[in-house]
Amino acid sequence: MSSHKLCNFVLPALLFAGLCSGAWSAETSLSNGVIGIWNDSTAASQAGDPWQVHWIWAKDDEANMLLARRAFEVSTIPDSARLRITASSIYKLYINGQYVSRGPARSAPHHQAYDEFEVGSLLKKGKNVLAVRVHYQKGTVSHHHNGRAGLLAQMDISLDSKDRTISTDSSWRVLPDPAWDPESPLISRFHLEATDVVDLRDSVGDWTSSGYDDRGWAKAVSLIRNVGWPAHQKNARPTVLMPPWTSLQRRDIPYLVEKDVLATKLIQSQPIQGKIFKYAGSKPGKLPLIKAVQMNGKVDPLSGKTALKDNDWFFLYDFGTVINGMPRLDIEGPAGTVVDVMCAPFVVNDTFTANIVDSLLIDRIILSGQRDKWEATYFKPTRYLGIAIRGADGPVQVHAAGIHQISYPFEIKGSLHTPENPWFEDCWKAAAKTIDVCTTDAYTDNYRERRQYVQTAYFAALGNYWTFGDMALQRRYLKQAAEEQEANGMMPAYAPLHGDDFMVILDGNTSWIRGLRNYLLYSGDFETVRELLPAGRKLMSLLNSFTNDMGLFNNPPYSYWLDHAPLDRRGANLCMNGHYLGTLQDWADILDWMHEPGAEQLRSRADTLRASLSREFWNPDKGLFCDAWIDGEQSEVFSEHGNALALIMHVATEEQGKIIAEQLLRDDDENYVTRDTGTVIATPLMAYFLQRGLAQYGYAEESLVMFQDRFDKMLDPATNQTLWEEWWRDGTGRTGKLVRGRTRSDAQTESAFPPALFGELILGIQPVKPGLKEIELSIPECGLNDIKGSLPTPMGLLSVEWNLKRGELDIEIPEGMLVHFSMKAGTMSLTTGKHHVQF
Questions:
Q1: Average of pLDDT values for 359-386?
Q2: Which of 342, 446, 621, 648 has CB 3.0 to 4.6 Å from 354, enough for a Cys bridge?
Q3: pTM of the shown model
Q4: What CATH class is the domain 258-407?
Q5: What is the CATH number of domain 766-839?
């Protein structure tokens, strides 16, 4: 793969560099010759003898935006300078005034992630300086640790065969940033990132350069353990490991790609006046925030990008697509001018607002009177960038506006080509775009919660396997959830935890087992799965303890989610039990593949549960499975959710499957919540199980028609052409009532599963053995004749091309894979190479 130059940031191929601390390491070339090093296997290096370092902070531990510097001299350019760095909560690193990187990757402090760089190319003969800006997100982190501010860095220099170490200790100089408002509000109620409230009149200029005089700064304080009994002795020495940082692990995902994206398409500019501007409260600062702006497409010909004297001005830019990154401004105006920078990934009803779902994507800066260059601390998902300029007593010039983009280094590998119906190809691309938009250092809902939910990651992985074939993100979310596991085996809904709520979603726990099975299937990474087997066993033992003698979850002690649909959660719920049935089968697969005992017992439990569901939940009068079984009585609620699981898990007989399909495939006036019969309609996420379930009972073509009809509006040219969280963007389908003025996410990886669905139903590919060593291939029954596509595998691309009219298959199989092709005449086994098959 060739290098891709992105401004001053280069991301070439990942180079496997050998063993380090028992793990394969990979290298990524960053800017200015810096090399980023990360682990590309399950093993992770721990803090130990190589660390000669202390955590540091300012004497005032209430400071939450810290500037830190360490000047040093070298007599000549070093042979190597290996820098390891982490912080609580986020750092931005400079060497001799040059920006290097930001981090660390999200982690809980009990498994604190650190970054590692080879930075020798940035050092010079004579005086050098390491400079770090650190923002601490106040609050608790993880379910058993209080948060704590801290910076940890160690640079090991090799110079003329001599080693020298420079590390964080009391020799560093620190200064709480006087420009930063410590009461800056949070971006989201779900997480601890803060919006910028910065008075640039108080900013410290040129502090990252080696020539800056920091003698007026205070000495850093080396941190010691401050919790637990008995307390540290007064003469105790600082240590690298202490609560909350009880282990250190090297980064295990690639470094993000960074580049500057300028805002060039100005779509609205005008004085702030009249009814199109609606205001919210007065925090932060004295001026009220602008809550919403009615878009009118007017661009004042007199202003351009200059806010004229004696007026407050508003500018709105459109990047044309959603990007994640930190807003940036190069701006010049009178001292004291207030500038609000507002971001939004989409607009609904021609109304621009930075109040997206539960997030407030607004930064506020106060100009210094000089030419100011500012970059936000935290990223925002941005397509539309609004700039409101107020309180200026003279003209303000916006020299440049834009986003410093951060993105995961995805590379499209898989493909789908359906010339007879390009919509499926477009949907495949929309799924890949959705994953890209929702991912920075983890699968999240970047618009709102910014959390790495386990069930979200399960569905995101399905899209990822077929489009990007990236395994690092899958491995990371599985491990981080297991690291938060409670003693009884329960795992949290999201990980790493951020806050003091150990949220339990029971179906999310089943998603962890099912996600682990899929990870082993697609990656063949037995090492990681073996490491996670104890966590899986503990969880499966707990789940089994919740079942009765019928094998049913009946009033389980923990809550379950089921995508907030209006289902009947009393007693034994069909959908929840269907998820558990899949979990039993998937854990049995894992044990078989790992040559571990217990699979036969699990499948016996699955048979018992399937029989109970089939016997107790089928309603012959309704022709559907009911939603719940309560004290021996059937619920009067019926849902596509439950029946989708009944189909895909083969709870339904062939005759029952036909009856269900005829009902669910019938056209009616859908409101995307309930059918005209009262049956609850599947949410976008549950469509994965519904469409596959219908196909398994012989309705593949009809299932795809239904899928296209329901998802079609998400691909409308007027949208971002990403896959939505719910069927509506401007309301909630949880109650069936449209809620104006409240938005939902239009990019959610829970809905990004279509590549896996299309891979099975349109390409006819079904993986069956870990590492994709064996594949079952069947003739598609999707209503299309000309189909072409590929699946990324650890061995290379598996490519297929169908001409169903002529009964022809062209297939290219990578080395090490066996494909079993099922035809009417029997099964043909194909091995490495290109094959042309007439059937």
A1: 96
A2: 342
A3: 0.94
A4: mainly beta
A5: 2.60.420.10
